[in-house]
Amino acid sequence: MRIAFIVGNFPVISETFIVNQIIGLIDRGHEVDIYSLGTSSIANHAKLHPNVEKYQLLERTHRHPLVPQNYLWRFLKALGLIITNIHKYPVVILRTINFFQYGRKAVSLRLIYLVMWLIKAPSYDIIHCQFGELGLEGMILQDIGAMKGKLITSFRGYDISRFLEEKGKNVYDSLFAKGDFFLANCEYFKTRAIKLGCHPHKIVVHGSGIDCNRFPFKQRHPHVDGKIRIATTGRLVEKKGIEYGILAIAQLNKVYQNIEYNIIGDGELKEKLQQLITSLNLNEKVKLLGWKTQPEIIEILEQADIFMAPSVTAKDGNQDAPVNTLKEAMLMGLPVIATAHGGIPELVQDGISGFLVPERDADAIAEKLTYLIEHPENWFAMGYAGRNYVEKNYDLNKLNDELVQIYYQVINNDLLFQDSALLPAISMQ
């Protein structure tokens, strides 16, 4: 198959799930082209996923051309593009300036730049848009005739939560009508998509896969030095709820003087979280480590005893799916504390692989942390249960095989998955 991935900025260190799908398809003999519609450049090559270089993914990546900020210059360049190319692609170009159908995208002239960038793209079997709002872009490109192929859109989190708050609950109406198929990375978001108008036969759950072999299992025991090491991995943004993890540590610090809390990640709340740490006199106990490569993350988690993922529903509605950072920790045998939030209860089995607590409840987090600190004999059983669950439900190779099956069924217009042997495998993710 020939497959186009439509992505935002690429590669993004927090979006390894996209890299994992791409290399899985390449390993299975399929041709993949990557179209990056984002505007950010690659800031730090040292922090890239190692497979980006190994598979030379940057050479497969086509980046959206810069659109002039000055509208007059933008107009003059767009006029030149139209005059130069209208005799070659008259129908496509006329569609890009259909202001009545495409509204602001056409009026801003950004659509003509986007279309002329893609006009020579080959035909694809599958055009896979990696978030809902990118599905809207893909739908327009397909509708105009700039890209050809079956259109699949993945819903992954903010695109089926925060994006709805920003754009309205009808934002995907046309995509649900015109898109060929949809994937949701958890049952929680699949159900939401159906309530919004997606036909139930046009969407399945396809989880975000993990290379289980990359994360070695370790049986957890208390450290000889008596220190309790707790870790969190995630972007420093509101929906990760990291402030509640810090507040819980502040409570425990009154009783346990040997706590160490390492927070891996970066983001817009870094300064605010550091101020909170300082105000609670936790500078010696809580560390903001910044972004780390996957090998660095593994090294930190190998030394940890407990993993926290205190996700919350952000004020703008943003929510999480079963996050990969939790899966990684569970694979490595860590008992976890997470919130009953979004798709996370589909991953963490309360009382078996860890504990689920209410959102924004530092007291509940502290209570469960105290329990785990006082009962290290339970660490192994919880860690073992967590690894087994992730291996069964989120193994990257199984899910990439499943993705290929989905593609073939979409290409063959075999969309009634309820009559297919594939449905049980997908529905369990």
CATH fold description of the largest domain: Rossmann fold
Q: Any idea what the radius of gyration is?
A: 23 Å
- Assembly type of the shown chains? single chain
CATH class of the largest domain: Alpha Beta
Compact summary:
The chain is α/β, with parallel strands linked by helices and 429 residues long. The protein is 42% helix and 14% strand. The chain folds into two domains: 204 residues, Rossmann fold, CATH 3.40.50; 181 residues, Rossmann fold.
Your description of this structure?
This protein has 429 residues and is an alpha/beta fold. The protein folds into 2 domains: 2-205, Rossmann fold (3-Layer(aba) Sandwich); 213-393, Rossmann fold (3-Layer(aba) Sandwich), CATH 3.40.50. Helix content is 42%, strand content 14%. It contains 18 helices and 13 strands. The protein has helices at 16-27, 50-54, 71-85, 90-96, 99-107, 110-118, 132-144, 162-167, 173-178, 187-196, 242-252, 270-279, 294-302, 324-331, 362-374, 379-394, 396-411, 422-427; strands spanning 2-7, 31-36, 61-63, 126-129, 150-155, 181-184, 203-205, 228-233, 259-264, 286-290, 306-309, 336-339, 354-357. Strands 3-2-1-4-5-6-7 form a 7-stranded parallel β-sheet, with helices on both faces. Strands 10-9-8-11-12-13 form a 6-stranded parallel β-sheet, with helices on both faces. Strand 4 (126-129), helix 7 and strand 5 form a beta-alpha-beta unit. The longest helix has 16 residues, at 379-394. The protein is elongated, with a radius of gyration of 23 Å.
